[in-house]
Amino acid sequence: MRFESHGVAALSLSRLSARCWQRLLWPGPARIPGALPARSLSSMAASIRFSPAARSLFDEPLGIAVQGLGPRQQVTLRASLRDEAGELFEAHGRYQAADDGELDLARCPALPGGSFSGLEPMGLLWALQPRKPFWRLVKKDVQTPFRLQLEVLEGHGDPPGQLLAQAEHERLFLRDGVRRVPVREGRIRATLFLPPGNGPFPGIIDLYGTGGGLPEYRACLLANYGFAVLALAFYGYEDLPKEMKEFHLEYFEEAINYMLKHTQVKGPGVGLLGFSKGGDLCLSMASFLKGITATAVINGSVANVGAINKSGIADIIDVLNNPLEGPNRRSFIPLEKAECRFLFIVGQDDHNWKSEFFAVEGSKHLQAHGKEKPEIVSSMHLLVGKPVMWGGEPKAHSEAQRDAWQQIQAFFHRHLNGKPSGTTNKL
């Protein structure tokens, strides 16, 4: 079956971008209760302490402290990491140690002049910026960690002074015991992530957007929390179509049946999680196929074209085809046919498309057909072949992203597992 579709998506905290699920570096207070010291230069009095000490999950808060400084000593903390292509990402913060010579980022605010300021325990992570323009931090091999390098430098000069301490910390994507299983069954091209234990586990199919390929980092992070997650490719990967011209529902139906028949997957239905173009594919799957219990959509995509602003960067938000008018109406997904619960997450400063507008229209459509109102959470492209305006602000982006991540897990636990959400956030 061939189909056309437009995405409906929708959390509202602040100005957030459509890039919401390309970077996963959360802020979060994490004190240092006697954590073990990380590796530092043996000849230096200062030492860096992380909590957890040497390794942590990529979506886990990381505590950072420096000990052995002089009373109220001024220092610069510089964080860096290289991605798998060797591109460098950096951030720095200017600090002053406490009277006892300790610098705990959970208690000491960053001073003006660095990549961020104020009390930001994880600012050195969410503020990381690439040296290469328009480069994004994306993890391709989830079996290897990102290695975060941290340096403590004397003073607030530009450049700062003498190196006082340095340490390395690994940010992991797979919790111990999580299994990664490549899937090449029938037409399916995917990777299945299974939590430790015998299961069965609540199942989720994870779809990405117009970039194609087989991104695995979100699927494996979800598997860390007890879900069996199938990261599903649908174009631009191995023997799948090279271009995004048309999609056939039978392919996605085959993936649903694969999950429902798997001995490690708990029925009677599965969940769907889609970002960008994967979002409207998930909405189409939920509307036309059986066996789906819960569907979460992040900044669902619509057909679009690009315009160019004065800087040569595409800003495509106002040049989208409206699926509610004229001949495009046929691409509006018949959500009323779905037999599942919906969660829509949108970025209010999304410069790819009007995510919030389409989410609200989708909600109206469902309610007009007697369906339950979906959860809508507002948070703050390869398609056009050039850099695009994403929108958003790094600090607000990271805060809303962390909240959205908790909301997604709670949504699937609630509707696939029958368990309480474990979060008190109510938006």
Automatic annotation (TrEMBL):
GO terms for biological process: acyl-CoA metabolic process; fatty acid metabolic process. It comes from the Eukaryota. Residues 59-185 form the Acyl-CoA thioester hydrolase/bile acid-CoA amino acid N-acetyltransferase domain. The keyword Nucleotide-binding does not apply. Residues 248-305, 308-417 form the BAAT/Acyl-CoA thioester hydrolase C-terminal domain. The active site is at residues 276, 350, 381. GO terms for molecular function: fatty acyl-CoA hydrolase activity. Keywords: Fatty acid metabolism, Lipid metabolism. The keyword Transferase does not apply. PANTHER family: ACYL-COENZYME A THIOESTERASE 6, ACYL-COENZYME A THIOESTERASE-RELATED. Belongs to the C/M/P thioester hydrolase family. This is Acyl-CoA thioesterase 4. It comes from Anas platyrhynchos platyrhynchos (Northern mallard). The lineage of its organism: Eukaryota, Metazoa, Chordata, Craniata, Vertebrata.
